[in-house]
Amino acid sequence: MTEQDIDMQRIPRHVAIIMDGNGRWATGRGLPRTAGHQAGVETVKRITEEAARLGLDYLTLYAFSTENWRRPDDEVSALMALVLSSLQDDLFMRNNIRFRTIGDIDKLPEAVRKRLRQCESETAANDRMTLVVALSYSSRWEMTEAARRIAREVAEGKLAPDSISEDTITAHLNTAFMPDPELLIRTGGELRLSNYLLWQCAYTELYFTPVYWPDFSVDDFHRAIASYQGRQRRFGKTEEQAARDNRP
Predict the structure, then answer these.
(1) Is 20 tagged catalytic?
(2) Which of 216, 246, 219, 212 is nearest to 231 (CA)?
(3) Most buried residue, 61, 98, 166, 167, by CB count within 10 Å?
(4) Which of 5, 7, 68, 215 is catalytic?
(5) Is residue 181 a contact partner of residue 60, using CB atoms and an 8 Å limit?
């Protein structure tokens, strides 16, 4: 599938991706799991550049969940080293991409935290697209932290309990700086959200593919976008109402 198969006037503003299948890709080739993660970094670069070229405003990648801390120590260490090395790339400046992170960043090794802050600072003026990487992130952690911040504001008299709304919660999430994703892609064949952007994905279109992340190509990305464009987004309305509201 090529760019000609998608409507360039209906590219989603925000696409979120669960990058799954690195370990299984490596195991199937008789390689250590870390080789799959290394191959996955190349896919990140390829899809990030294509997302920017297509005109997305935000691309959010689920790189490391809070549950991933339970993995073997050697794999976690290798993943942290890979995060550190991948941030040395000139991908962001070459493509005018801003870099942001979401998650419990304080849990990451100091060298990784330092490089993340540097990368965010160095790319802050870039305005073609924002790449958001979820590190040490889970949706339940994020919503728990938001609830704690809201509770503190109520206790301090800054916020009345009766004034708390959906917008209040949204404003206290890690993702408050960006819109909800219109499309979520999960590679690797699993059919679940794995604690990723649960609040934000209330009306997100979901696309699952059996393709492992290291093999996920630009054509696969186009295929996911074409699937999104073939759907009617109703937000609780009837088909007739949605069609009427979406008329030019």
Answers:
(1) yes
(2) 246
(3) 61
(4) 68
(5) yes
Do residues 119 and 87 make contact, with C-beta atoms less than 8 angstroms apart? yes
The residues, ordered by sequence, that sit 6+ positions from 196 with a Cβ below 8 Å of its Cβ are: 16, 18, 62, 65, 134, 137, 138, 139, 184
User: Which of 121-130, 167-176, 200-209, 239-248 shows the lowest per-residue confidence on average (mean pLDDT)?
Assistant: 239-248
By the 8 A CB rule, do 63 and 19 touch? yes
Give 12's contacts (C-beta < 8 A, 6+ positions apart).
56, 181, 182, 183, 225, 228
The set of residues, in sequence order, having a beta carbon less than 8 Å from that of 124 and lying 6+ positions away, is 98
Query: Which candidate, 8, 101, 94, places its Cα nearest to that of 56?
Result: 8
Cα 16 from Cα 134, distance rounded (Å): 10
Distance of CA 66 to the CA centre of its chain: 15
127 is catalytic: no
Instruction: Catalytic residue, from 20, 174, 180, 220: name it.
Output: 20
Q: pTM for the whole thing?
A: 0.92
